[in-house]
Amino acid sequence: MGSGPAGLTAAADLARLGYKVTIFESLHKAGGVLSYGIPEFRLPKAIVQQEVEYIKSLGVEFKPNYIIGRIKTLDALSEEFDAVFLGTGAGLPRFMGIEGENLNGVYSANEFLTRVNLMKAYDPEYDTLVRKGKKVVVVGGGNVAMDSARSALRLGAEEVNVVYRRGEEEMPARREEVEHAREEGIVFRLFSNPTRVLGDDKFNVTGIECIKMEPGEPDESGRRSPVPIEGSEFTLEADVVIIAIGTSPNPIIFKGSEGLEQSRRGTVVAEAGTGATSKPGVFAGGDVVTGAATVISAMGAGKKAAKAIDEYLKNN
Ligand SMILES: Cc1cc2nc3c(=O)[nH]c(=O)nc-3n(C[C@H](O)[C@H](O)[C@H](O)COP(=O)(O)OP(=O)(O)OC[C@H]3O[C@@H](n4cnc5c(N)ncnc54)[C@H](O)[C@@H]3O)c2cc1C
Protein backbone atom coordinates (compact mmCIF):
# COMPACT_ATOMS: atom_id res chain seq x y z
CA MET A 1 0.00 0.00 0.00
CA GLY A 2 1.41 3.39 -1.03
CA SER A 3 3.85 4.09 -3.87
CA GLY A 4 6.20 6.52 -2.12
CA PRO A 5 9.90 5.72 -1.61
CA ALA A 6 9.09 3.15 1.13
CA GLY A 7 6.50 1.24 -0.94
CA LEU A 8 8.45 1.41 -4.20
CA THR A 9 11.65 0.14 -2.56
CA ALA A 10 9.88 -2.74 -0.81
CA ALA A 11 8.05 -3.64 -4.05
CA ALA A 12 11.24 -3.61 -6.16
CA ASP A 13 13.20 -5.78 -3.69
CA LEU A 14 10.35 -8.30 -3.37
CA ALA A 15 9.88 -8.46 -7.16
CA ARG A 16 13.60 -9.12 -7.59
CA LEU A 17 13.27 -11.99 -5.10
CA GLY A 18 10.64 -13.51 -7.40
CA TYR A 19 7.40 -12.52 -5.62
CA LYS A 20 4.31 -11.24 -7.42
CA VAL A 21 3.77 -7.71 -6.09
CA THR A 22 0.76 -5.36 -6.39
CA ILE A 23 0.90 -1.71 -5.24
CA PHE A 24 -2.36 0.00 -4.26
CA GLU A 25 -2.02 3.80 -4.51
CA SER A 26 -4.68 6.36 -3.63
CA LEU A 27 -3.47 8.97 -6.16
CA HIS A 28 -3.49 8.62 -9.95
CA LYS A 29 0.32 8.73 -10.16
CA ALA A 30 3.04 6.73 -8.40
CA GLY A 31 5.90 8.26 -6.41
CA GLY A 32 4.30 9.60 -3.21
CA VAL A 33 5.83 12.86 -2.00
CA LEU A 34 8.46 12.57 -4.77
CA SER A 35 5.63 13.14 -7.27
CA TYR A 36 3.11 15.32 -5.43
CA GLY A 37 5.19 17.20 -2.84
CA ILE A 38 8.80 17.96 -3.82
CA PRO A 39 8.70 20.56 -6.63
CA GLU A 40 9.96 19.98 -10.18
CA PHE A 41 12.81 22.51 -9.73
CA ARG A 42 14.28 20.33 -6.96
CA LEU A 43 13.40 16.88 -8.28
CA PRO A 44 12.48 16.56 -11.97
CA LYS A 45 9.39 14.35 -12.27
CA ALA A 46 10.86 12.58 -15.34
CA ILE A 47 13.47 11.01 -13.02
CA VAL A 48 10.77 9.78 -10.62
CA GLN A 49 8.69 8.31 -13.47
CA GLN A 50 11.80 6.61 -14.91
CA GLU A 51 12.24 4.82 -11.56
CA VAL A 52 8.54 3.92 -11.46
CA GLU A 53 8.75 2.48 -15.00
CA TYR A 54 11.81 0.44 -14.01
CA ILE A 55 9.92 -1.00 -11.00
CA LYS A 56 6.95 -1.83 -13.25
CA SER A 57 9.38 -3.58 -15.64
CA LEU A 58 10.28 -5.91 -12.75
CA GLY A 59 6.68 -7.16 -12.93
CA VAL A 60 5.17 -5.01 -10.16
CA GLU A 61 1.49 -4.30 -10.83
CA PHE A 62 0.34 -0.77 -9.99
CA LYS A 63 -3.29 -0.06 -9.02
CA PRO A 64 -3.84 3.74 -8.95
CA ASN A 65 -6.86 5.64 -7.55
CA TYR A 66 -7.23 2.91 -4.93
CA ILE A 67 -7.76 4.16 -1.36
CA ILE A 68 -7.14 1.48 1.22
CA GLY A 69 -9.56 1.98 4.10
CA ARG A 70 -12.27 3.05 1.67
CA ILE A 71 -12.30 0.93 -1.52
CA LYS A 72 -10.79 -2.05 0.28
CA THR A 73 -9.69 -2.52 3.89
CA LEU A 74 -6.37 -3.74 5.23
CA ASP A 75 -8.24 -6.77 6.63
CA ALA A 76 -9.47 -7.64 3.12
CA LEU A 77 -5.96 -7.23 1.67
CA SER A 78 -4.56 -9.49 4.39
CA GLU A 79 -7.00 -12.21 3.31
CA GLU A 80 -6.21 -11.75 -0.37
CA PHE A 81 -2.39 -11.52 -0.16
CA ASP A 82 0.20 -13.57 1.74
CA ALA A 83 1.84 -10.44 3.16
CA VAL A 84 1.12 -6.70 3.13
CA PHE A 85 3.51 -3.72 3.33
CA LEU A 86 2.01 -0.48 4.57
CA GLY A 87 3.90 2.53 3.21
CA THR A 88 1.15 5.12 3.14
CA GLY A 89 3.20 8.01 4.48
CA ALA A 90 2.07 10.94 6.61
CA GLY A 91 -0.05 13.04 4.29
CA LEU A 92 -2.67 14.48 6.64
CA PRO A 93 -1.93 18.19 7.18
CA ARG A 94 -2.04 19.83 10.60
CA PHE A 95 -3.73 23.20 11.05
CA MET A 96 -3.24 25.90 13.68
CA GLY A 97 -6.84 26.06 14.86
CA ILE A 98 -6.96 29.86 14.70
CA GLU A 99 -9.68 32.24 13.49
CA GLY A 100 -9.86 32.68 9.70
CA GLU A 101 -8.07 29.46 8.76
CA ASN A 102 -10.97 28.46 6.49
CA LEU A 103 -10.91 31.66 4.40
CA ASN A 104 -10.51 31.42 0.61
CA GLY A 105 -6.83 31.51 -0.25
CA VAL A 106 -5.63 29.60 2.82
CA TYR A 107 -4.05 26.29 1.78
CA SER A 108 -2.36 23.44 3.56
CA ALA A 109 1.10 23.01 2.03
CA ASN A 110 0.00 19.53 0.90
CA GLU A 111 -2.93 20.86 -1.09
CA PHE A 112 -0.93 23.76 -2.54
CA LEU A 113 2.02 21.59 -3.59
CA THR A 114 -0.22 18.82 -4.96
CA ARG A 115 -2.10 21.31 -7.11
CA VAL A 116 1.15 22.80 -8.38
CA ASN A 117 3.27 19.65 -8.82
CA LEU A 118 1.00 16.73 -9.52
CA MET A 119 -1.84 18.64 -11.13
CA LYS A 120 0.42 21.14 -12.91
CA ALA A 121 -1.47 24.29 -11.94
CA TYR A 122 1.44 26.38 -13.30
CA ASP A 123 0.77 25.10 -16.82
CA PRO A 124 -1.97 27.00 -18.74
CA GLU A 125 -2.70 23.75 -20.63
CA TYR A 126 -4.11 22.28 -17.39
CA ASP A 127 -7.48 23.18 -15.81
CA THR A 128 -6.18 22.92 -12.22
CA LEU A 129 -7.08 25.93 -10.15
CA VAL A 130 -4.65 27.46 -7.73
CA ARG A 131 -4.66 30.99 -6.39
CA LYS A 132 -1.53 32.71 -7.69
CA GLY A 133 -0.89 35.13 -4.84
CA LYS A 134 1.03 38.38 -5.20
CA LYS A 135 1.68 38.56 -1.44
CA VAL A 136 2.12 35.11 0.06
CA VAL A 137 2.69 34.10 3.69
CA VAL A 138 3.98 30.61 4.49
CA VAL A 139 3.73 29.39 8.08
CA GLY A 140 6.37 26.88 9.22
CA GLY A 141 10.13 26.31 9.16
CA GLY A 142 10.67 22.92 7.51
CA ASN A 143 11.55 21.73 4.00
CA VAL A 144 7.86 21.74 3.15
CA ALA A 145 7.61 25.44 4.06
CA MET A 146 10.69 26.22 1.92
CA ASP A 147 9.26 24.30 -1.07
CA SER A 148 5.90 26.08 -0.68
CA ALA A 149 7.55 29.51 -0.48
CA ARG A 150 9.80 28.91 -3.48
CA SER A 151 6.89 27.43 -5.52
CA ALA A 152 4.73 30.49 -4.72
CA LEU A 153 7.55 32.68 -6.01
CA ARG A 154 7.65 30.71 -9.27
CA LEU A 155 3.88 31.12 -9.63
CA GLY A 156 4.47 34.87 -9.75
CA ALA A 157 4.38 36.13 -6.15
CA GLU A 158 6.03 39.52 -5.63
CA GLU A 159 6.53 39.07 -1.90
CA VAL A 160 6.81 35.85 0.10
CA ASN A 161 7.13 35.91 3.90
CA VAL A 162 7.94 32.79 5.93
CA VAL A 163 6.61 33.04 9.49
CA TYR A 164 8.33 30.78 12.04
CA ARG A 165 7.90 30.84 15.81
CA ARG A 166 11.51 30.01 16.76
CA GLY A 167 14.95 31.22 15.63
CA GLU A 168 16.79 30.27 12.42
CA GLU A 169 19.10 27.71 14.07
CA GLU A 170 16.04 25.79 15.22
CA MET A 171 14.40 25.66 11.79
CA PRO A 172 13.95 22.00 10.80
CA ALA A 173 14.60 22.77 7.09
CA ARG A 174 17.96 21.80 5.65
CA ARG A 175 20.46 24.73 5.72
CA GLU A 176 20.82 24.82 1.94
CA GLU A 177 17.04 25.00 1.48
CA VAL A 178 16.91 28.05 3.76
CA GLU A 179 19.86 29.63 1.94
CA HIS A 180 18.30 29.01 -1.49
CA ALA A 181 15.01 30.51 -0.29
CA ARG A 182 16.80 33.59 1.04
CA GLU A 183 18.86 33.97 -2.16
CA GLU A 184 15.58 34.00 -4.11
CA GLY A 185 14.29 36.90 -2.00
CA ILE A 186 12.05 35.11 0.51
CA VAL A 187 11.76 37.09 3.76
CA PHE A 188 11.99 35.25 7.10
CA ARG A 189 9.86 36.53 9.99
CA LEU A 190 11.48 34.61 12.84
CA PHE A 191 10.19 34.43 16.43
CA SER A 192 6.71 35.23 15.08
CA ASN A 193 3.52 33.21 15.44
CA PRO A 194 0.16 33.68 13.67
CA THR A 195 -2.78 34.62 15.91
CA ARG A 196 -5.52 34.95 13.26
CA VAL A 197 -6.02 35.04 9.52
CA LEU A 198 -7.73 38.17 8.24
CA GLY A 199 -10.32 38.32 5.45
CA ASP A 200 -12.74 40.60 3.59
CA ASP A 201 -16.54 40.45 3.34
CA LYS A 202 -16.27 37.91 0.47
CA PHE A 203 -14.28 35.54 2.74
CA ASN A 204 -11.06 36.06 0.82
CA VAL A 205 -7.85 36.18 2.82
CA THR A 206 -6.33 39.67 3.09
CA GLY A 207 -3.59 39.15 5.64
CA ILE A 208 -2.37 37.44 8.74
CA GLU A 209 -1.97 38.80 12.25
CA CYS A 210 1.09 37.54 14.11
CA ILE A 211 2.61 38.07 17.52
CA LYS A 212 6.32 38.31 18.32
CA MET A 213 7.77 35.44 20.35
CA GLU A 214 10.76 35.07 22.66
CA PRO A 215 12.50 31.98 24.03
CA GLY A 216 10.85 30.86 27.29
CA GLU A 217 12.22 28.83 30.20
CA PRO A 218 13.92 25.54 29.18
CA ASP A 219 11.61 22.49 29.47
CA GLU A 220 12.65 19.01 30.76
CA SER A 221 14.52 18.33 27.50
CA GLY A 222 16.40 21.63 27.82
CA ARG A 223 14.60 23.08 24.78
CA ARG A 224 13.24 26.59 25.28
CA SER A 225 9.65 26.86 24.07
CA PRO A 226 8.85 30.24 22.57
CA VAL A 227 6.35 32.42 24.44
CA PRO A 228 4.39 35.38 23.03
CA ILE A 229 5.47 38.95 23.83
CA GLU A 230 2.35 40.72 25.01
CA GLY A 231 1.22 43.65 22.85
CA SER A 232 3.66 42.85 20.01
CA GLU A 233 1.02 41.94 17.38
CA PHE A 234 1.73 42.94 13.80
CA THR A 235 0.01 42.31 10.46
CA LEU A 236 1.33 41.01 7.14
CA GLU A 237 -0.74 41.60 4.02
CA ALA A 238 -1.46 38.39 2.06
CA ASP A 239 -3.72 37.12 -0.69
CA VAL A 240 -2.49 33.54 -0.18
CA VAL A 241 -1.53 31.87 3.11
CA ILE A 242 0.09 28.41 3.12
CA ILE A 243 0.21 26.37 6.32
CA ALA A 244 3.22 24.04 6.56
CA ILE A 245 3.35 23.11 10.24
CA GLY A 246 3.53 19.33 9.89
CA THR A 247 1.58 16.25 8.89
CA SER A 248 0.54 12.91 10.34
CA PRO A 249 -0.68 9.60 8.85
CA ASN A 250 -4.20 9.67 7.46
CA PRO A 251 -6.36 7.70 9.97
CA ILE A 252 -8.33 6.12 7.09
CA ILE A 253 -5.77 3.29 6.94
CA PHE A 254 -6.95 2.08 10.36
CA LYS A 255 -10.52 1.54 9.10
CA GLY A 256 -11.03 -2.21 8.88
CA SER A 257 -7.60 -3.09 10.21
CA GLU A 258 -8.34 -5.36 13.16
CA GLY A 259 -5.39 -5.70 15.53
CA LEU A 260 -3.15 -3.05 13.94
CA GLU A 261 -1.49 -1.14 16.79
CA GLN A 262 -1.48 2.64 16.53
CA SER A 263 0.72 5.01 18.57
CA ARG A 264 -0.64 8.04 20.42
CA ARG A 265 0.72 10.20 17.56
CA GLY A 266 -1.45 8.28 15.08
CA THR A 267 1.47 6.40 13.50
CA VAL A 268 1.60 2.63 12.94
CA VAL A 269 3.64 0.79 15.56
CA ALA A 270 6.26 -1.40 13.82
CA GLU A 271 9.44 -3.21 14.86
CA ALA A 272 12.52 -1.14 13.95
CA GLY A 273 14.59 -3.86 12.24
CA THR A 274 11.82 -5.61 10.29
CA GLY A 275 8.79 -3.33 10.06
CA ALA A 276 6.63 -6.12 11.54
CA THR A 277 3.40 -4.72 12.98
CA SER A 278 1.06 -6.18 15.61
CA LYS A 279 -1.04 -7.70 12.78
CA PRO A 280 0.38 -11.00 11.47
CA GLY A 281 1.67 -10.72 7.91
CA VAL A 282 1.43 -6.91 7.90
CA PHE A 283 4.66 -4.89 7.77
CA ALA A 284 5.03 -1.11 7.73
CA GLY A 285 7.74 1.49 7.11
CA GLY A 286 8.49 5.08 6.16
CA ASP A 287 6.58 8.14 7.34
CA VAL A 288 3.52 6.09 8.38
CA VAL A 289 5.71 4.65 11.17
CA THR A 290 8.14 7.49 11.95
CA GLY A 291 5.96 10.51 11.16
CA ALA A 292 7.29 12.97 8.54
CA ALA A 293 10.99 12.09 8.01
CA THR A 294 13.25 11.63 4.97
CA VAL A 295 13.32 9.85 1.61
CA ILE A 296 16.41 7.86 2.54
CA SER A 297 14.91 6.61 5.83
CA ALA A 298 11.70 5.60 4.02
CA MET A 299 13.75 3.67 1.42
CA GLY A 300 15.76 2.02 4.20
CA ALA A 301 12.54 0.94 5.92
CA GLY A 302 11.22 -0.48 2.62
CA LYS A 303 14.43 -2.52 2.17
CA LYS A 304 14.37 -3.93 5.71
CA ALA A 305 10.69 -4.82 5.40
CA ALA A 306 11.23 -6.60 2.05
CA LYS A 307 13.90 -8.78 3.68
CA ALA A 308 11.63 -9.50 6.66
CA ILE A 309 8.65 -10.29 4.37
CA ASP A 310 10.83 -12.74 2.42
CA GLU A 311 11.76 -14.53 5.67
CA TYR A 312 8.14 -14.47 6.86
CA LEU A 313 6.88 -16.00 3.59
CA LYS A 314 9.57 -18.70 3.60
CA ASN A 315 8.60 -19.67 7.17
CA ASN A 316 4.84 -19.58 6.67
C1 LIG B 1 7.22 19.16 0.25
C2 LIG B 1 8.13 18.11 0.84
C3 LIG B 1 9.50 18.24 0.69
C4 LIG B 1 10.35 17.28 1.20
N1 LIG B 1 11.69 17.41 0.99
C5 LIG B 1 12.52 16.41 1.38
C6 LIG B 1 13.90 16.45 1.09
O1 LIG B 1 14.40 17.41 0.53
N2 LIG B 1 14.68 15.40 1.47
C7 LIG B 1 14.16 14.32 2.12
O2 LIG B 1 14.90 13.36 2.40
N3 LIG B 1 12.86 14.26 2.44
C8 LIG B 1 12.02 15.27 2.08
N4 LIG B 1 10.69 15.21 2.40
C9 LIG B 1 10.18 14.05 3.16
C10 LIG B 1 10.05 12.80 2.28
O3 LIG B 1 9.48 13.14 1.05
C11 LIG B 1 9.21 11.74 3.00
O4 LIG B 1 9.83 11.45 4.24
C12 LIG B 1 9.11 10.46 2.17
O5 LIG B 1 8.52 10.71 0.91
C13 LIG B 1 8.30 9.40 2.91
O6 LIG B 1 8.14 8.29 2.08
P1 LIG B 1 6.94 7.26 2.29
O7 LIG B 1 7.09 6.25 1.21
O8 LIG B 1 6.92 6.79 3.69
O9 LIG B 1 5.60 8.11 2.11
P2 LIG B 1 5.05 9.05 0.92
O10 LIG B 1 6.13 9.57 0.04
O11 LIG B 1 4.15 10.01 1.60
O12 LIG B 1 4.16 8.06 0.04
C14 LIG B 1 2.99 7.49 0.56
C15 LIG B 1 2.07 7.10 -0.58
O13 LIG B 1 0.96 6.38 -0.05
C16 LIG B 1 -0.23 6.84 -0.67
N5 LIG B 1 -1.35 6.59 0.25
C17 LIG B 1 -1.67 7.28 1.38
N6 LIG B 1 -2.77 6.77 1.95
C18 LIG B 1 -3.17 5.74 1.16
C19 LIG B 1 -4.26 4.84 1.24
N7 LIG B 1 -5.16 4.87 2.22
N8 LIG B 1 -4.38 3.89 0.25
C20 LIG B 1 -3.47 3.82 -0.77
N9 LIG B 1 -2.42 4.67 -0.86
C21 LIG B 1 -2.26 5.61 0.09
C22 LIG B 1 0.04 8.32 -0.90
O14 LIG B 1 -0.80 8.85 -1.92
C23 LIG B 1 1.50 8.30 -1.32
O15 LIG B 1 1.65 8.12 -2.70
C24 LIG B 1 9.81 16.18 1.92
C25 LIG B 1 8.43 16.07 2.11
C26 LIG B 1 7.59 17.02 1.57
C27 LIG B 1 6.09 16.89 1.78
Question: What does the model show?
Answer:
This protein is an alpha/beta fold and 316 residues long. The protein folds into 2 domains: 5-90 and 248-315, FAD/NAD(P)-binding domain (3-Layer(bba) Sandwich), CATH 3.50.50.60; 95-243, FAD/NAD(P)-binding domain, CATH 3.50.50.60. Helix content is 29%, strand content 21%. The protein is globular, with a radius of gyration of 21 Å. The mean pLDDT is 96. Bound molecules: flavin-adenine dinucleotide. Flavin-adenine dinucleotide binds at residues 1-7, 24-27, 32-33, 37-38, 66-69, 87-89, 91, 113, 143-144, 147, 250, 252-253, 286-288, 292-296, 298. Residues 1-7, 24-27, 32-33, 37-38, 66-69, 87-89, 91, 113, 143-144, 147, 250, 252-253, 286-288, 292-296, 298 line the site of flavin-adenine dinucleotide.
List descriptors:
globular, FAD/NAD(P)-binding domain, 9 helices, alpha/beta, about 325 residues, 15 strands, binds flavin-adenine dinucleotide, 2 domains, single chain, about 30% helix, five-stranded parallel β-sheet
Q: Give the helices and strands as they follow along the chain.
A: HEHHEHEEEHEHEHEEEEEEEEHH
Instruction: Tell me the distance between the termini.
Output: 21 Å
Tell me, rounded to a whole number, the average pLDDT.
96
Q: List the uncertain runs.
A: none
**In the CATH scheme, what's the topology name of the largest domain?**
FAD/NAD(P)-binding domain
Question: Could you tell me the strand content as a percent range?
Answer: 15-25%
Multimeric state of these chains?
single chain
How many structural domains are formed by the residues?
Answer: 2
Tertiary shape: globular
Ligand types: flavin-adenine dinucleotide
Q: What's the architecture of the largest domain in CATH terms?
A: 3-Layer(bba) Sandwich
Classified in CATH, the superfamily of the largest domain is FAD/NAD(P)-binding domain
Outline the biggest β-sheet.
5 strands, parallel
Structural class category: alpha/beta
Number of strands: 15
Number of helices: 9
Helix fraction? 25-40%
State the CATH class of the largest domain: Alpha Beta
